[in-house]
């Protein structure tokens, strides 16, 4: 027992992974990234919500690490300022510096770690292993990627390469002969062991042994690891290991397994009896075994949760409290009937005011116990136009159709014709008046789907001429000559992969392969800001439901939270082991969900920047996320064609919807949450009975405590309808305020 | 199974010959075997790595096809200069060449005369992206409009008729609802699971909606009406419209009844129109006709063998109708004949029986022979050729006999030309040359001499065609390196799926480099197109098709080194 948890960085795994952005070889964005992180508490956060509590030692060590990093990069002024602000003594840095000067990476790795003790423990292990006689040859050569060397040298411990197969098959024989109830659990060990043993062989230049090892045992692995195995199979040389991201993922993050105490004791006894140190070392160094008391899990239970790049989520990773409740709606006096007309008149006018960034004030009377406080994160104050829009929304809501299994929504399909396979992203405004498409040719196009045409604001010279006192000034500022059904926005230099309207319909965000996120004005149809920070393709971006904030995520594995008026990110959410493929805001704007190619979904707290939930269970990269309107549940869709449902409060998987045969690109709950619509590459829109899926849920205390779920296979019962389109993949879904479902996709003749 | 595939994945490496070929073309003569192996392993690994990244771009581009731009983006991700000039919408335009023991794929770049480009009129501007909305579903029901796929696919129609007790799946349930709604009966049982549990055969509709009734009326009127333009339109609609399956029983009854009536009335024109309807129905890919063959086949056979099809058999060209119907019959035999329904053998038996009957009229005789002949050369060989002499005698009797009616004479004449037409080509294939008139006479009797001349004509024609089909093949041998090009017009995709390397060095023109022949390829820069396709994985992965190009002046020894460094270092 002690051996498992001793010397591990388990508690800080979350932060440990934050070394990712700097260690995956993008050396020149180190400085970019680090700075907003360190300065955000002071300058960036609007309303100063993030508190710097420098009291605890851990905080102090983080500061020290940051200082050291800055010093290393010769940013002496920043060092001075930070030291002054944090009130640190001059010599504190040097102390720390001498502590971790063992490897050139000590500064940055330990720095973001935040746990100096663990960092040095890691380093000491490195020195032990290298002094044991096997000097890592790359240690001196590859100074451009020091982290990689540290990572790799842990593999340098030597065993007899010929014996690896014997070890592995010995363990295999053992696990095959144990009692049935333990077998499924212990079989989880196979995959991470296989990977690490293979990597060890490759690292120590036993190419032929590695190949035969791979050929002999790769067939035994679960089929959902096939993609990773493909990457591994191509990796046969030590030189290849440098710069291979998959490898780094395996090494930097411990593969997490959940095993019952009995099964674990069984395994431990076996390995100790056999003196099987090779395997025991790997289990100790590269695996994190989360031991629980109670019944061993069944094969289906394990299969439901496994599949991610680094095993399951630790139980304690999903324990923290999440305020999933909705914010109190601001009270707006509903206009009386005679005012209706007036309100509608004003509604017809375009909105002009910019959002303000003061906090919303406390209007809550009876707060949902699960909701965050109204001011937990500062939200922009409602403008008059927003209030009008809310009134409009409420009016529409009264006309909303109540959906259910008996009353399915009508679906209107918007086909993009002549897109030549180039349509990459679609979004609709909340009131369904505008639709925007991102294209592979770097353009963003906006269409108006109501009879109203799109018009630009007049030029500054012309604006001077109009009578500013007149009642219809908002109408007068528009230039009639520019009226058209669609507008094209030029500015990106690569395919546009993500697109999002602001809630007030004044802005549009687009993220692109060129590494930027752009903010466009829908008044002037020009680009306002290009947010640079991701140096690699940005796969997705989304506005917060309250506007002002937005989130982006991309190939650099970091999700960033921005505010429209800051050119640098406010928060960086690091932790994913592979590309972030989709990002979604929680309806209360306090949380952000990100889906990734590492086949996990993470939920991040916007206030603290911490990862509060990790959901594993998908067997392919996740391409669609949707929060239920009440904020309690999350639905996710992946390339494996399955939709998984998650309970955010308990951190549990609560449903699996099987039916699609290809990647799911779109998910959306109806406005009241009764129906979940999913759209896929297989040209279908499917409707699911989400109410039933959530109601059937049995959340007894045991399930909640252990996270062991029994999923019913009731996809067929929950499926309410399948609607085939004519060779048009569905890439966006949207429920109008009256619960009409809009779908969009490009027609591929 | 999976194991095998994985092993293959593990071992797919570019052949060392590719490395040698590349080295040669940049002037490195003797590349050691070891370096080749090291190079090819390294390059293969990098290519796989890039391919895996390119896949990401494909997924985010929401496509199923990997395009060249995906590869470009993947290269950019690795901080490698993307490949310019490989913009291709659909496929990678490799061509295949072999010779000198090597198989190569190369990218053909023709020398283009700039003035030609300037002088050609501008191409049409591609259509701009546009947005179109339609109803995918209205309150849970999918409307049958052209924008939506056909309500029931052929497979569904088939399973509906062949597996009557299948549990109703929610996907098909929607149709059930449509049907229920249109019938105006029990609309409540459309959704429930209880329906699935009872395992009832889903009711098929026998009533058409008002729109469908209107459509049916319009179509049938147009098909048998007098306006040819309208008819063409209606037939086109029958042949292409995806939502006709509910009306199929009506159409089939319409045709069979129509034939029955019009044969009696000898209305040739209408019979022709009805046969064209059959043709259109058979052309429609979304219809599952098997259910209605029992009505359609008798109608078609009637049009082939009926004694009289028109009012004035001596003048009207009912032969054409027989020919047309015979072709239809052959087509339906080809598509619908199975071991259980035995359509082809039953039809053949029917034809043969009435042909063998001495009392059969010439018209029916003609129909039988036409029907048999359309079934293909094998049928002609086994059933028609042996009877040529008997048939010849019969024709002779009519043609040269004393008193015959004009009708018989015309019939015999048509049978004769029909036999000649069909048999000549078959005989030309199975009979060795030379063609001797006497021998033909002894073998085939009265028809022998005529057959002989027809066969000879057929042979010369076949030879002529063969000449046209045969494409030019040229092989050029040069001192070094040897490269032969077979200009067979094969594209890369049809070549053997082995990893292979292609090069087209600029110094080597494929033909004598005479100036002023712009059609001959003389590419300006050296290119390597490395293509590794693994046959097993190609369909499942879409990964391993890739190409890499270097500039002309890069030393081959540096190639892998530079590539590696580039890939590894990125910015540093």
TrEMBL record, chain A:
Ranges of biased composition (kind: Basic and acidic residues): 12-21, 357-368
Regions of compositional bias (Acidic residues) in chain numbering: 334-345
Domain (TFIID subunit TAF5 NTD2): residue spans on this chain: 159-287
Keyword list, A-Z: Nucleus, Repeat, Transcription, Transcription regulation, WD repeat
First-listed, main subcellular location of the protein, grouped into a coarse class: nucleus
Biological process per Gene Ontology, one example term: transcription initiation at RNA polymerase II promoter
Domain of life of the native organism: Eukaryota
Any GO molecular function: RNA polymerase II general transcription initiation factor activity
WD repeats: from-to residues: 489-524, 531-572, 573-614, 615-648, 657-689
Localization (cell): Nucleus
A cellular component annotation (GO) from this entry: transcription factor TFIID complex
Pfam families membership: TFIID_NTD2, WD40
Polar residues: compositionally biased ranges: 22-43, 50-59
Family: Belongs to the WD repeat TAF5 family.
PANTHER family given in the database record: TRANSCRIPTION INITIATION FACTOR TFIID, TRANSCRIPTION INITIATION FACTOR TFIID SUBUNIT 5
Designated name of the protein: Transcription initiation factor TFIID subunit 5
Organism from which the protein derives: Sphaeramia orbicularis
Name of the encoding gene: taf5
Automatic annotation (TrEMBL), chain B:
TATA box binding protein associated factor (TAF) histone-like fold domain: residues covered: 12-78
Residues annotated as signal peptide: none
A GO term for molecular function: transcription coactivator activity
GO cellular component: SAGA complex; SLIK (SAGA-like) complex; transcription factor TFIID complex
Gene3D superfamilies: Histone, subunit A, TAF6, C-terminal HEAT repeat domain
Family stated for the protein in its record: Belongs to the TAF6 family.
Protein name as annotated: Transcription initiation factor TFIID subunit 6
Lineage of the organism: Eukaryota, Metazoa, Chordata, Craniata, Vertebrata
């Amino acid at each position: 027992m002690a051996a498992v948890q001793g010397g591990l960085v388990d508690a800080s795994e979350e932060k440990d992974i934050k070394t990712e952005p700097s260690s995956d070889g993008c050396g020149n964005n180190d400085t970019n990234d680090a700075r907003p992180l360190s300065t955000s508490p002071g300058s960036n956060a609007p309303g100063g919500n993030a508190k710097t509590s420098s009291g605890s030692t851990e905080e102090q060590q983080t500061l020290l690490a940051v200082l050291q990093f800055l010093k290393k990069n010769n940013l002496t002024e920043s060092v001075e300022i930070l030291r002054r602000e944090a009130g640190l003594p001059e010599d504190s840095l040097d102390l720390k510096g001498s502590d971790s000067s063992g490897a050139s990476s000590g500064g940055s790795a330990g720095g973001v770690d935040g746990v100096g003790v663990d960092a040095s423990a890691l380093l000491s292990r490195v020195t032990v292993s290298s002094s044991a006689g096997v000097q890592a040859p790359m240690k001196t050569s590859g100074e451009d990627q020091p982290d990689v060397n540290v990572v790799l040298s842990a593999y340098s411990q030597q065993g007899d390469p010929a014996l690896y197969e014997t070890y592995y098959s010995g363990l295999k024989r053992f696990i095959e002969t144990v009692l049935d109830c333990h077998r499924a659990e212990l079989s989880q060990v196979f995959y991470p062991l296989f990977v690490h043993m293979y990597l060890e062989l490759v690292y120590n230049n036993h190419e032929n042994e590695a190949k035969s090892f791979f050929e002999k045992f790769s067939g035994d692995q679960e089929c959902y690891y096939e993609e990773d195995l493909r990457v591994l199979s191509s990796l046969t040389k030590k030189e290849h290991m440098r710069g291979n991201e998959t490898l780094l993922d395996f090494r930097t993050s411990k593969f997490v397994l959940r095993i019952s105490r009995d099964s674990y004791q069984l395994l431990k006894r076996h390995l100790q009896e056999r003196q099987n140190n090779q395997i025991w070392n790997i289990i100790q160094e590269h695996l994190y075994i989360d031991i629980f008391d109670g019944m061993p899990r069944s094969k289906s239970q394990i299969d439901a949760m496994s599949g991610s790049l680094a095993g399951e989520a630790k139980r304690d990773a999903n324990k923290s409290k999440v305020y999933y409740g909705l914010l109190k709606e601001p009270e707006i006096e509903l206009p009386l009937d005679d005012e209706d007309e007036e309100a509608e008149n004003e509604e017809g006018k375009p909105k002009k005011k910019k959002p303000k960034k003061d906090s919303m004030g406390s209007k809550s009377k009876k707060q949902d116990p699960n909701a965050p406080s109204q001011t937990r994160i500062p939200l922009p104050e409602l403008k008059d136009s927003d209030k009008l829009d809310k009134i409009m929304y409420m009016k529409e809501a009264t006309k909303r159709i109540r959906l259910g299994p008996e009353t399915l929504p009508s679906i209107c399909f918007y086909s993009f014709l002549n897109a030549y396979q180039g349509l990459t992203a679609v979004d609709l405004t909340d009131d369904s008046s505008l639709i925007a498409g991102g294209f592979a040719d770097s353009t963003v196009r906006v269409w108006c789907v109501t009879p109203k045409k799109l018009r630009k604001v007049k030029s500054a010279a012309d604006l001077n001429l109009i009578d500013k006192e007149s009642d219809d000034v908002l109408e007068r500022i528009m230039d009639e000559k520019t009226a058209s059904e669609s507008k094209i926005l030029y500015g990106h230099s690569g395919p546009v992969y993500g697109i999002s309207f602001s809630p007030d319909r004044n802005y549009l965000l687009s993220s692109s392969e060129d590494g930027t996120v752009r903010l466009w004005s829908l008044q002037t149809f020009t680009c306002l800001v290009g947010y640079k920070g991701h140096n690699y393709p940005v796969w997705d971006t989304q506005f917060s439901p309250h506007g002002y904030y937005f989130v982006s995520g991309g190939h650099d594995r970091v999700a960033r939270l921005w505010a429209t008026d800051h050119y640098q990110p406010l928060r960086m959410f690091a932790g994913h082991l592979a590309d972030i493929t989709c990002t979604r805001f929680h309806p209360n704007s306090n949380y952000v969900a990100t889906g990734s190619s590492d086949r996990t979904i993470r939920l991040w707290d916007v206030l603290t920047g911490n990862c509060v939930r990790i959901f594993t269970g998908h067997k392919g990269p996740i391409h669609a996320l949707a929060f239920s309107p009440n904020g309690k549940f999350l639905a996710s869709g992946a390339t494996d064609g399955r939709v998984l449902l998650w309970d955010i409060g308990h951190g549990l998987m609560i449903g699996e919807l099987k039916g699609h045969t290809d990647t799911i690109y779109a998910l959306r709950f109806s406005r009241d949450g009764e129906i979940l619509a999913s759209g896929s590459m297989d040209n279908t829109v499917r409707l699911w009975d989400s109410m039933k899926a959530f109601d059937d849920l049995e959340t007894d205390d045991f399930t909640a405590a252990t996270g062991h779920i029994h999923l019913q296979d009731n996809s067929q019962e929950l499926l309410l309808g399948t609607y085939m389109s004519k060779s048009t993949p569905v890439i966006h879904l949207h429920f109008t305020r009256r619960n009409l479902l809009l779908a969009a996709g490009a027609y591929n003749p | 199974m999976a194991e095998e595939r994985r092993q293959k994945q593990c071992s797919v490496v570019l052949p060392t010959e590719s490395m040698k070929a590349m080295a040669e073309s940049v002037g490195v003569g003797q590349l050691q075997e070891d370096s080749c192996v090291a190079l090819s392993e390294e390059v293969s690994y990098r290519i796989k790595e890039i391919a895996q990244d390119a896949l990401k771009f494909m997924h985010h581009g929401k496509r199923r096809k990997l395009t060249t731009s995906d590869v470009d983006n993947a290269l950019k991700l690795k901080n490698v200069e993307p490949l310019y000039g490989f913009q291709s919408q659909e496929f990678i335009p490799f061509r295949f060449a072999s010779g000198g023991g090597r198989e190569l794929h190369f990218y053909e770049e023709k020398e283009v005369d700039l003035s030609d480009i300037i002088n050609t009129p501008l191409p049409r501007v591609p259509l701009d992206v546009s947005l179109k909305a339609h109803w995918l579903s209205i309150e849970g029901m999918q409307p049958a409009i052209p924008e939506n796929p056909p309500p029931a696919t052929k497979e569904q129609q088939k399973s509906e008729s062949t597996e009557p007790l299948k549990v109703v799946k929610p996907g098909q349930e929607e149709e059930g609802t449509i049907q229920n709604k249109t019938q105006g009966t029990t609309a409540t049982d459309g959704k429930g699971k209880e329906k699935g549990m009872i395992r009832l055969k889903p009711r098929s509709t026998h009533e058409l909606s008002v729109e469908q009734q209107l459509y049916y009326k319009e179509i049938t009127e147009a098909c048998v009406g007098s306006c040819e333009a309208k008819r063409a339109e209606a037939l086109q609609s029958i042949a292409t419209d995806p939502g006709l399956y509910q009306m199929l029983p009506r159409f089939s009854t319409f045709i069979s009844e129509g034939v029955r009536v019009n044969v009696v009335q000898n209305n040739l024109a209408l019979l022709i129109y009805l046969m064209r309807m059959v043709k259109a129905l058979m052309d429609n890919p979304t219809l599952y006709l098997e259910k209605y063959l029992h009505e359609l086949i008798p109608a078609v056979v009637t049009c082939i063998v009926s004694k009289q099809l028109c009012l004035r058999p001596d003048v009207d060209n009912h032969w054409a109708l027989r020919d047309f119907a015979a072709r239809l019959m052959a087509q339906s035999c080809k598509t619908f004949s199975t071991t259980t329904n035995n359509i082809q053998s039953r039809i053949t038996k029917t034809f043969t029986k009435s042909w063998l009957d001495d009392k059969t009229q010439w018209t029916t005789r003609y129909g039988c022979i036409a029907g048999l002949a359309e079934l293909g050369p094998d049928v002609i060989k086994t059933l028609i050729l042996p009877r040529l002499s008997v048939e010849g005698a019969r024709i002779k009797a009519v043609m040269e006999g004393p008193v015959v009616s004009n009708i018989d004479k015309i019939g015999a004449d048509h049978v004769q030309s029909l036999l000649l037409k069909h048999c000549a080509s078959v005989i030309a294939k199975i009979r060795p040359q030379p063609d001797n008139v006497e021998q033909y006479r002894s073998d085939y009797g009265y028809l022998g001499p005529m057959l002989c001349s027809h066969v000879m004509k057929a042979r010369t024609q076949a030879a002529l065609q063969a000449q046209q089909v045969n494409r030019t093949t040229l092989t050029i041998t040069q001192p070094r390196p040897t490269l032969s090009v077979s200009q067979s017009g094969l594209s890369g995709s049809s070549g053997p799926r082995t990893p292979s390397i292609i090069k087209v060095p600029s110094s080597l023109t494929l033909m004598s480099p005479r100036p002023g022949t712009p059609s001959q390829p003389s590419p300006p820069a050296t290119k390597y197109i490395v293509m590794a396709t693994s046959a097993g994985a190609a369909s499942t992965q879409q990964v391993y098709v890739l190409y890499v190009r270097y500039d002309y002046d890069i030393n081959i020894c540096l190639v892998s080194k530079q590539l590696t460094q580039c890939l590894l270092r990125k910015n540093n």
